[in-house]
Amino acid sequence: MVTTQEQVEASDLRLINKPKALDRNPLWVQAIISLVLIILALITLLPILNVLAMSLSEAHAIYEHPLMLVPYSVTLDAYKYIFSTSVLLKSFAVTVFATGVGTLFNLLVTITGAYALSKTKMPGSRMLLWFCIIPMLFGPGLIPSYILLKNLHLLNSIWVLVVSGLVVPFNLILMRNFFWSIPEELEEAMRIDGASEMGILWRMIIPLSKPAIATIGLFYAVGHWNDFFTGLFFITDNTKWPLQVLLRSIVIDMNALNMRGVSTTISQDASKIMLTPENIKAASIIFAVVPIVIVYPFLQKYFVKGIMLGSVKG
């Protein structure tokens, strides 16, 4: 029996379209995976819902329902109180400055350094790369960092939040790997047209590297926003504290927002229930979390793509 060409093509097509047994998990496996993911999501979400509910509830509701997930007797008095004080707003301004300016400085140094390290023909590039890898394995420690910042006259200054940790070696290597994956023919074409190295970097490399730059920028921005130890160790002036250090003072000392003037008892008049330190702490925590949560979705589409592209070569 002679097999026709049409039969051979149809047989090949069935083999290609035939589902593989390993491509699909059994239903019970998918159910277990979904259950585990739901439990992990709840473990992450429930504490946030509890803090949010406490920040929106009146004092008597917090004492009656300490583990609430929805607010009782909704009120915005806690948020009105924290916005009426200048301490939290100044700390917020310091954190915004450190995050914005610090991220710009981080990206400037990381992009230029990664572009130089991506040129393997540059003399000493391998040695410079090792200088970046070694700090990933062995940190300098607190005391050498303190002495360095003191000699630079950066102690008790807002700029210490910007300069400290100017380059993260992991981010530098990730960006360098991304630049390394860009074809050299594109650079050679621009050099033939008379472009300089800075022109190539600004006009071609950076536009092609937007996913990786957005990813690295998100890393740096989140790092600056959540930075706690820099302000705690190197800034003693509480008017220059970043938001995270002020939150620590609020949660532990309960005096940073003049909480000694906040009543911890319930007024006899139900319509004039006073705030409690728990209201203030919960509202302050939500106030610190919300900005970075709002920014993240706008950069999420670049996040995974930038990580994957930056890890192709190494």
TrEMBL record:
Q: Indicate yes or no for the key word Transmembrane helix.
A: yes
Topology relative to the membrane:
Multi-pass membrane protein
Might you report a single GO cellular component term?
Answer: plasma membrane
Which InterPro entries does its entry note? MetI-like (IPR000515), MetI-like_sf (IPR035906)
Which residues belong to any copy of the ABC transmembrane type-1 domain? 92-298
User: Transmembrane segments in this chain: where?
Assistant: 27-49, 92-116, 128-148, 154-179, 200-222, 280-299
Q: Does the keyword Acetylation apply?
A: no
Query: What is the name of this protein?
Result: Protein LplC
Query: What does the organism's lineage look like at the top?
Result: Bacteria, Bacillati, Bacillota, Bacilli, Bacillales
